[in-house]
Amino acid sequence: MTSTLEDKFFDLCTVYTIFFLVKKWLFMALIFVHPSTLLSSYAAESQLIVSTLGKEKSHVNVVVIGHVDSGKSTTTGHLIYKCGGIDKRTIEKFEKEAAELGKGSFKYAWVLDKLKAERERGITIDIALWKFETPKYHVTVIDAPGHRDFIKNMITGTSQADCAILIIAGGIGEFEAGISKDGQTREHALLAYTLGVKQLIVAINKMDSVKWDESRFEEIVKETSNFIKKVGYNPKTVPFVPISGWNGDNMIEPSTNCPWYKGWKKETKAGEAKGKTLLEAIDAIDPPSRPTDKPLRLPLQDVYKIGGIGTVPVGRVETGVIKPGMVVTFAPAGVTTEVKSVEMHHEQLTEGLPGDNVGFNVKNVSVKEIRRGNVCGDSKNDPPKAAESFNAQVIVLNHPGQISAGYSPVLDCHTAHIACKFDTLIEKIDRRTGKKLEEAPKFIKSGDAAIVKFVPSKPLSVEAFTDYPPLGRFAVRDMRQTVAVGVIKAVEKSDKAGKVTKAAVKATKK
């Protein structure tokens, strides 16, 4: 039997995988002997292997949105299954389980359900499972649709999405239900636009259920174009792709079931882009600019105490760069100290960049002093501070009554979860144009937009959306649902001095 190039590649990958596992076991067994030597050699060796596997593609984050039952899970699962980081053994395991449970023909939503369950069970989920590749990009799916806190996660999401993929069900009655007043399609699209997700792809799913009817596709494109235009998107920059997430039509390969479909077109910064499939539409996303030139902002997701190492905060770099030796300030805790080391996926980094989920070791700080929801920043370059109050533009999505001054629900902003008071209703505005409709309204209700002054009940660090977008958008939560969403316009910051560790003083003198 002749071995193909593909077989050789997989053999090579298997060798690398075994090599990594052996290295990891040795590393775990010996780390207590010479931690510093081992860490650096392990990182250097990993770096060498990664660099031999070819040039790194750039990363984009996508969020999949749309009405319940539009086929979000099936479509996302299909992309991850066909183009993603799920190894063959895992797929075989899932297929076997699916067959045993009578799921019969293995379908892609099952992949997503399994991954969701595994992600929700533990904190160390392999992020590769949530990735897939296009010729140009590594794509990360920020949050799986169908999640109970999907809207909350979309707003406070540890990542800002670069593009939203709106899945619309083409079935008779389904499309109409999705874009009706009560449907989630409008709400999700409005949320995406309000939160700064300026690129959109529309996938019209379940086209097999209407026998690939061209007139049905055209009708949906027309209706959807009208409503996304009202939300704020320019339909000329949006690809519309007819798909079947279940059967795979126009997902990765062009379908033979719709000879009438000549492909999608969209205007981009570089000119016109064309294609036929959903994968090509994702590949045609405008490359996002990453805010490395801004000051550091890193909201903490967790803080661990690791024996022999010390305090290790963990979080995603939103803006700026974090490096070993840097002096950082945590707000609202007001603690300033030095960063000893920065790691990602068990590898030492010389710097953590926007989008990186990092763990970093800090000196002279106990786990009791900093917590989830704190923000880490460079003490010498616009360090984060506690907010005394902030003004925000709020859209009320879903409140059974009237909201007036004094209302104190919980705000989810980046990784913080803090009760904040609607202190003053400054003005009611037109949610599309931003024009003032009423000065100092007595109350606001569902569907209204307003400028509101908020006062946090406990220390909180937030930023204006224009300065640091991921720290300037929030969800208002009450009665176990998202009542409103907001974008912060201005922050009144506290000037209280906090604790400066010996390590910080020493590092500053260097």
UniProtKB/TrEMBL annotation:
Q: What is this protein called?
A: Tr-type G domain-containing protein
Q: Which SUPFAM superfamilies does its entry note?
A: EF-Tu/eEF-1alpha/eIF2-gamma C-terminal domain, P-loop containing nucleoside triphosphate hydrolases, Translation proteins
User: Domain Tr-type G: where?
Assistant: 57-292
Family stated for the protein in its record: Belongs to the TRAFAC class translation factor GTPase superfamily. Classic translation factor GTPase family. EF-Tu/EF-1A subfamily.
GO cellular component terms, alphabetically, are: cytoplasm
State whether keyword GTP-binding applies: yes
Lineage, top-rank taxon, reads: Eukaryota
Write the record's keywords in alphabetical order, separated by commas.
Cytoplasm, Elongation factor, GTP-binding, Membrane, Methylation, Nucleotide-binding, Protein biosynthesis, Transmembrane, Transmembrane helix
